Amino acid sequence: MEEALEKIRPHTSSSLSHQKTPAVLLIALESTFKEQNTDASPTAYFAALLTTLDGTLQKKKLGSDEMEVLHAVLYLLALIAPFVSAPVVRTNLSTVLSLTAPLFSVLKEHAPALRSQLSLYHAIFQSLDRSQLDTQGIRQTFASILQFCIDPRPKVRKKAADLVKDVLSNPPPPLSRHPYSERVAEWAKSALSEVGAGPFSKLKAKSPEASPETALHIVAFLRPVLGRLPPPSIPAIANLLLTLPRLGHPYLSQSSYSVLSDLFTLPSDNGTHISNQLSGVLSVVLASPPSKSDSILSPAWVQVLGNAFSVYRADDVNSHANELGKVWKVVWSFLESNDPPTRKAAAQSLDMLCRSFTPEFISYTLQDTNSSTTLRKIIAQTLKALDSLVYARAMPELLSVISSMIANLRYRPGPRTFPTAAESLLLPIIEHVGKLRVQKGFEYKEAADATLATAMRVLGPHVLLQTLPLNVEPHDLEAGKEPRAFLLPLLTQSHPSPLGHFVSYFVPLSERMFDLQSNAEAEDRPSEAKVWSVLVAQIWSGFAGYCHTPPDLKEALTPAFSQLLSQLLYGQPELRPAVLKGLKALVESNVAAATLKEGHTSDPDAPSVDEATANIAVLRAQAESWLAVFFNVFGTVGRDSRGMIGDVISAWASIAGEKEITKAYVKVAELFKNNLTLAAKGPSQHGGQDSGSVTAMTQDILILLLPFLSTADATALYNLCLSTEVLTGKDNGVQKRGYKILTKLVESGKVTVDAEAVISQMDKLSEGLVAAAKKDRFNLLSSLVPSLPSMAMHIIPSLIPEAVLGTKEPSEKARTAAFELVLIMGRKMSQGGVVKRNLIDGMDEDGASDTAASIEEFLTMLAGGLAASPHMISATITAISRLVFEFKDTISAKLHTELFATLLVFLTSANREIVKSVLGFVKLAIHTLPTEIIRPHLKDLVPKLLNWSHDHKNHFKAKVRHIFERMLRRFGWDEVYPCAGEEEAAKVLVNIKKRKERAKRKKISRAEEGEDDDDVPITRHVTGDAFEDILYGSESELDDSDDDVPIQSKNQQNKKQSEQGTRLRLDDDEPMDLLSGAASRITNDTSKRRRKPGQDASRFKTDEDTGKMIIDEELESDNEDIRPSTDVAGTAYRESMTSVDGFTRGPNGRVKFHKDTKKRRREEFEAEDVEMADGEAATIASKKNKRKAEPKLGHEFKAKRAGGDVKKKGMDPYAYLSLSQAAKKGGRGRNNLGITGKR
Known about the structure:
The protein is mainly α. It has 60 helices and eight strands. It has a two-stranded antiparallel ribbon with strand order 1-2. Strands 3-4 form a two-stranded antiparallel sheet. A two-stranded antiparallel ribbon has the order 5-6. The longest helix has 28 residues, at 609-636. It is globular.
């Protein structure tokens, strides 16, 4: 509430009355509160505003001034009401009703005030109980609000509709449905009846409310409240909505169909009883089909049919089949439409129809082999459409419908060994899609791949590959069979095929391909070897798809196959991720199936709980062997590859028995001890090589096994890691993992921990701590502090220096852990206890008495760091800031004031590190602390902040500006500016005020120009931590105000692309058959000029022997040189300096024009000649072949940037020619060069 009121107070000097009047009224109310020493609570504002409203309404005549006051009172009431407690609203309900209820008729012509009135009642209705809803005044008021739901003004209409929706969504307890829902349903039926009584032209003469716009408003109002209306009223509303399309208004018809679609998709537990009337609804909708060319109405109409049939339930199979056939036939015809949205909506509707395939309906079709059944007709129609030219443009939608048919025919008439209905009915369609996929001109390969992926998921590879073989082996290619390697990536998804199919089919295939790869590498054919390598990798990527609850796990996972998998893990790094993924899926899928209750899955291929339990028993028997393999692989791979292996180890350890886990732990722990002894004798390992040691690797394995250890093993591991060798080891990785293991063991609760003794022992071992282990040490301390007994609070002061200094660590994770430790210690102290001061280091000789633990005592302990080094002072201030933010409501006002006054002194420090922390605290305090605490310190705070307002180092200037912006928002200009002091310092505040006003003016001007700010939401960087956002986030309103560059919205940048049509593509070499295979001849508008392979390469010369392209660099550079110059701006300056028409300025600024000399004219003519030659090089070359200029004598020795000749390639220039050059014969009467270079 205070934030909302702060935005109103500054407008007392506004020139706009609707801004000024509420601000003046608010200031007047608050001044009255101060005079009467009344707390400015929401209740006080509410009572004062009701009194003001009563006084305003008692005047006999409301003039313009009184109306402005009335509007301002309603505006402030609407703002305050949500913060007033519900008992206060209920107590004053009669007063509020008597004052505001009669105003609806008065405010009907004043939309802003009417919106405030509606907002007020929005808050009032949320506070009422069950008994008050039946009072006459409330019922009449709600009836008046319902009429505003069809108001012609959009903002008023939206405010009223939101009010009704929220009222119905929040019924008073213990009711599940609001008592006003029946009233809303009756009003909606009455309004719809009035609108649907006849043509709009006649209704306009009778009732102004019965217009097309009113009908649209009613339909828009119904959409969000449908689910809140009484179930018995839904059928009547549906029948009334069905009467609207016949009125001939396209947008009204579209809206009514959309609402009907929403009505049909309501949850079945809503009890809407609409399913009993669906047959009649379908008949009415089918009787008024729109034109296929109607792009507005057609999508909504077909969507209604699909949604209606999705909840349709017939009494018998025959009636269901008949209704499905009628609806399918009508919706299918819309796939012929030229409008892409209509085709898309038709495909979605057909998808809804496919979901209505019930098991009874599918069984009926499987038993009746007659082709005249509805489902077989649908399948035949779909198969025929794949080759039809009529549906060629709808090929993506057609393929999506086929995918839906496959997915909804997963029904099996028996156990998992029985074929699915899709296998029995849809194999011809799937085979045809596979043929289309390999056709050269087929452009919808992605859609075909999606359909084949659905077939792979439903049928499984063991069925699909019989219909569509891979044909990737050499003998298949030699036989001319089309390869289908695109099927291999589809194997990765889960499917019902048995694991034995992979063992019998793909394992031998991958072995043959690996042999082909080896032969190709031996014969130096790297490209071919790469092809076979990729195919092998794709085959093993599909291994995981077979591992989702395979039905034949016991028979397929033989020792021979397990040995093969182990060899791949050891010797084939590129196949290792695929094998690990499959082994992990074996465990996780069976565990999930075993824990799932019977009947709670919709997957017909899911195994029973007994089958999954039997599979887990098979895997548990092999767990010990597999864990040994995984440990060995874990130790041989690099750090980046250990994550996946660790996940697999965790998965298999979760199903292993306690004996197996104990055996594995003993082996790893023994290896860890041995390597720890060896590492202690060797050199220390620091830096980034901490994970390279065997000791650290064994610790990683122990971390993975830790959740599954028994209590005895966990205790042994705890004692092992708490030893001096681990926590003060020379290896960074060993220390880090030692602390991490201890933390996990303490958090697991498997170990009994004496927190006081452990912390004391850790304190002794702190000297050998390395920087890399600090984060994990802080985490361990954070887990130990809550376990401290209430009589051992004297331990906490010994942890404060380490935790506070940790907030300054370079590592972000270490800093976060240190802050968390400070907070945990604060929470522990706030829970109470006794601090024995005589047991604290340094206080044992003072005879200090015991004191009670509290958060204020903890802050007092922390404040001792303010007398240390500058680094410690800065860290202490930051820690205090974090605690103040966390416990701001617990800390007393006195301590808040003392802390603020103490830390304010450090603003004058010369140390920037200290000042930086203090600025953060001040920023936090202004944001979170009550204004009463900060206001007395403004006179000291503002001048000290202004001293740093011109310092650019450490971003102090920006930090101070952000602090002042917040300060001005909380305290106002009149309180902050007088504290500024001298005139120079006050200019900073004036500048901030001007910048803010400038930003507001720009925002208003953009709004007046029609730019919608909502299109470009300003997203600020959020860290996810409220403290971090306050301390380091700027939240400056002026950051973005100085950017004069207009920001284009996404809608402006990405213009709507026109809908791309389709056309037939002609191939000159091949005749076209329009009756068959038309899908492969369809192309988009954008692909009229298809790139032909090798077209770019044809411009280059080729070597006849090798076939390689020859690229002449000199030719390329020549081509680049003849491009026309476009550097107009760059040549303008040069031209002004050198041309005849140019000029220069003398030392006194006088203009001196260039003289029209012969030399200047010649240079300008040559420049123009070069530009003309550049611009028209292609044209001149095509019209006239110029004779190449003969080189001048000694041209190779001519210098480009200096006078005279230069030495080239070790050869000196000479004044004579060689005899061979001079004796060269010229053709066609050309004169030869003489011995002296003359003609």
